[in-house]
Amino acid sequence: MTDYLANAYPRLAGKLRKRSIASLPTPISHHEVQLPAGTRSITVKHDDQTSLIYGGNKVRKLEYILQRAQDRGAERVATFGAVGSNHALATAIHAREAGLGCTCFLAHQKRTPDIPRTLSMHLELGTEIVRYGGGTNRLELYRRYLQNRKTWVIPLGGTCWLGAIGFVNAGLELAAQIESAELEAPERIYIANGTMGSVAGLAIGLALENLPVEVHAVRVADNRFAKREVLDRLMNKTTTLLNRLDPSIPLEAATRTRIIWRDDFYAGGYAAVDDTTTHAVEFARDNLGLALDTTYTGKAMAALLHDLEMSCDGTSTLFWNTYNSMPLPPIDSDGHSLRNLPDQFKRYYDMKTLKCDLCEATADGETFEEWMTALRPHYMEAHADVMSDSSKTKEDMERWMAENKARFDAA
Fold it and tell me: Which of 36, 94, 309, 328 is buried most, with the most CB atoms less than 10 Å from its CB?
């Protein structure tokens, strides 16, 4: 496994240690796809395969963060996220591999089908799960779960200057793959932009290699966590600290980044899904062989497809797949108990997810009424002609509702 950053800046090697848990470089694949606007080319960077244990973009950050925790004598790590957080799960999995205990402070989020399996995996791993946010006393929680426990705290999403360096390395890795003719230099890279660490590091790495690539940072998180001015501060801090470790790394690298901030595919909220996101996930599955999620990568793919449709000149594009594609290990249903799960999180196991009866869009709910309420805006927007059909009688609507209820009850 090549350490591109250490090779390019040897003085860093002894000062910036990392735990080699990523399988690098991650592969590149090339695809020709048919769109209404014509044939288009899409290149994919497979960070879904960063690790055979659990992949995704967080692994690059954890290489540096977990090593720092061990170097400082930590016996466990703690981090933050929503109940379905890939970052929290990746941290728990790789922390255990490193012999570290793990506490995850988790908050509620919009229900998605993957949440029960994610929580079950935490229980299987022995993750200490703590409910966070929504009226909890944070200071009390910190005292109880962090104080005097030799715990290294990892920020939300693993986003800090040390985590961002994992993606500085990724930028240099891509440059090496371009140099070796695995791909031509793309004009645009599309990447999901949550807590911004991946975007910050990647943009810096590309700038260090003088690659004039636009990084389209497709916002998927609430603007409490994803703000352009905060991204700029993170990039400045990262380059400043890298420069202190190795003065040959130029301080002005952060000012040479080429980031296009994209708010237009947020779909109204974190983990919220619209028809554009759903279509992008299905397109990627059918045409690129990718299993994307609707919370992060589906929205980045939606931006890419939109721009390809609008482009007449065949702009070369690269999709940076940050969503783990490695299968989770089997879960022993008898090996863990929901007793170790905060009571407020047990409701995620009662959720049902069903498709619209007219298309592939999905909604979820614990009850039929909740599911139908969640799906109603989709019906009114995507199937307005059906919903406003004056030929439908009251009996027709009652029969339709009864059929949908029967589907829900049988699920």
Answer: 94
